[in-house]
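Subject: Sanity check before I submit

Could someone independently write out the structure tokens for this chain? I want to compare against mine line by line before I put it in a report. The sequence has 195 residues.
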Amino acid sequence: MINRKQLLIKRIFDLILSVLLFPILFSPIIILVLISTIDTKQYGIFSQLRVGQHGKLFKIYKLRTLRQERHHLGHLNRSATRLGKFFRNTKIDELPQLFNVLIGDMSFVGPRPDVQGFADELIGEDRVVLNVKPGITGPATIKYKDEETILSQQIDPETYNRTIIWVDKVEINKKYVQNWSFYLDLNFIIKSILN
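---
Independent answer below. Compare away.
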């Protein structure tokens, strides 16, 4: 099981890497925010409350990929733009999360941060998943990199997500927390870059 010393090592690594990457990626992120603003006709940064370490809520940042369009009946529809789909498929939309890592809400590696109603409702030994900060990437993220495609093929995507994918993710993330090592994190970062 990951201990305090290991959590400190993990945080120091996150801090060093994010400080090194920030000056390199700051300008590209600003340009992408401007492109996303033009593309979606809304401010290019999307923020949402997610469940973090120990169940504490934090604001996650992503590039906006959805455009609001008024349906002919007056309803608002949200759909990903062509560029937005490209940002999502390539994970470019996740770049602003570098700021989340820098300020300490997230880690480079860990369970993906979920909306309320998932990780915050874990019980018993499953709650060990909340011992670590959520990550930009991680073992479950890599396994389910095509999650949107998998869900789009289901008759009832919401039920499939809750009963199959979410249950599997919890098991994967429990193993990650229970067997954490610095080399394991490096391995997941390399795998994410190569995938």
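---
OP: Matches mine. For the report I'm noting this point. Helices lie at 4-40, 82-90, 97-103, 139-143, 147-152, 157-178, 182-194.
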